[in-house]
Structure formats: C-alpha cells, structure tokens
Amino acid sequence: MKDRRPDAVAVARLLRQRVEMGAGPLFLEGLSREEAIALAEAGGRPAPRPERPGTVPPSPTARPLPVLPESYERLRDAALACTRCRLSETRTQVVFSDGAVDARLVVVGEAPGANEDATGLPFVGAAGQFLDLLLASVDLSRRDTVYICNVLKCRPPGNRNPLPDEIEACAPWLEKQLELVSPRALLAVGTFAAQSLTGKQQPLGRLRGSVHAYRGLPVVVTYHPAALLRNAGWTRAFWDDLQLLREVLDGA
Ligand code: SF4
After folding, report:
1. CB-based contacts of 41: which residues, under 8 Å, 6+ apart?
2. Does residue 28 register a pLDDT over 80?
C-alpha cells in the first residue's frame, strides 16, 4: 500500500471530522498547498497569510476580552499586558493613564506618541506641558482634579492615524477606566477622541461648542494641544471650550 504523507493525513482527518460534525462546505480555492495544509492542521480555522510588504497585518481582535476587573489597579495591570491588536507588536509599553484616579475631569486624547511610548505616560513633552498650562488657567491639574488617557493605549507606528479595528479593540479598556474613575465630565481633545466619544463622524469644528454625552457623562470637545502649538489662532477657541467645560463641571 502506498505511504501517505503526514500532511495528506491531516487534510483527510479534517475533511472526515467536518463530515461527521455536519459542517458546511470548505472552500480551498485560492489557497496554496501550504496554506491548505496549515488550515487542516489548525482544525479548519483560517491560517494567517504571510504579510505582504506595505500592508497592515490583521489584528487579533477576534480574541474575546476576558471579564474586566472591577478594581482599578487590576484593570490597569490587565491593560498593561494587552495584546488585543497589532499595536502590541510595535509599542514599547502600554500607556494607560496619568493623573488623579478620583478626578473630576478626564481628558481623552488620541494615542501615545514617541515621548509617551518611551515614558509610559500620556501627554508628556511640549503638547502635554501646554495642556497642563491651559488646564491650570481654570484651576484644573492632573495632580488632583484631572485624569488623562487616550482612546488607544499603544502608539501607532510612525504616529499614523488609529485604524477602526484598533479603536474597536481598545474601546473596552477606555469604557471600563472611565466607569471606575467616574468623573463629572470628559474633555475630548482632537478629532479621533471627539468622534470616538460622541459617536459622531463629524469634523471637530462641527462638534465643538456643544455638550455631548458618553454613557451618561457630559463631553466637551476641543482641539488637541499639539494642534494648538502649530496654530496659535485656535487658542482662543480652546479657551472658549474650557469655559464651557467649567460650566459643565460647576453644574451650570
Ligand atoms: S492599543 Fe489597546 S487593544 Fe491594542 S494592544 Fe494596546 S491596549 Fe491592547
């Protein structure tokens, strides 16, 4: 009798199991021989295709998120080890937050940059210092009244824009940390944070000037401090947004 190679045995076993389980059709068209063998050895789950130059590899977002801890410290520890999206492969470290855990205000930005990736803290460097200065003008400080975090906890390579599946994969961390910090209001800085928190895909200019809502929390939208450093003309608009925020915090 002719010897059958182990890879052919694996394919035969997969097909027999699928028939026994009443599984639907299996389409192998377009797969290379190696991919079909890998599919069989993985028990019918699609094997990852080799990455082509210039493409963004898929994120493992199908991996279910375990039940999130109810303790802030445990949530933070779990997030620091997160590998739910492709950014875990290129980050230096997870940037979870800075500031007071019992803050009245949470500032939410877009994603860590190079300085944040290196230090593990959000909003460091010139933009962070400028943000601190502007918040101090309305008696707010990350020492005692402000908590700061980002929509994404890991730096996108080259500071590229966050991708929709990365935002979706990271959203549970943000939701839970906001629930545990439980501030009186949120300040979304920059377009991505504004659109993520309001759920409205509108330009930042259209979202400013109104109070939005995120899971029952009031949200004020404004420019990212890095954008203010590039365009000093927007500082007055930022100041107006801070006055609106102040009114929200004061319960006006
Ligand atoms: S960006 Fe968010 S979801 Fe992706 S690896 Fe980092 S913590 Fe996890």
Report:
1. 7, 10
2. no
Radius of gyration of the chain (CA): 23
**Residue 177: pLDDT over 80:** yes
Q: What is the pLDDT of residue 55?
A: 53
- The C-alpha atoms of residue 199 and residue 61 are separated, in whole angstroms, by 20
Q: Residue 190's closest CA among 155, 153, 162?
A: 162
pLDDT tens digits, one per residue of 119-155: 999 999 999 999 999 999 999 999 999 999 999 999 9
Task: Report, at the CATH architecture level, how domain 72-249 is classified.
Answer: 3-Layer(aba) Sandwich (3.40)
Tokens of 11: 């394919």
Atom of ligand 1 nearest to the CA of 88: 5
User: Does position 24 have pLDDT exceeding 80, yes or no?
Assistant: no
Which pLDDT value is given to residue 232? 87
Q: pLDDT category, 58, cuts 50, 70, 90?
A: low
CB of 176 shorter than 6 A to ligand 1? no
Give the side-chain half-sphere CA count within 13 A for 54.
0
Residue span(s) of the chain under CATH 3.40.470.10 come to: 72-249
Tell me which of 56, 83, 151, 153 to substitute to probe ligand 1's pocket, judged by most ligand atoms within 8 Å of the beta carbon. Answer: 153
Q: Are 124 and 97 in contact (CB under 8 A)?
A: no
Tell me which amino acid residue 243 is: Q
Residue carrying structure tokens 């855990």: 101
Confidence of residue 67 (pLDDT cuts 50, 70, 90): confident
Q: Which atom of ligand 1 is nearest to the CA of 59?
A: 4
Residue 116 CA, ligand 1 centroid: distance in Å: 14
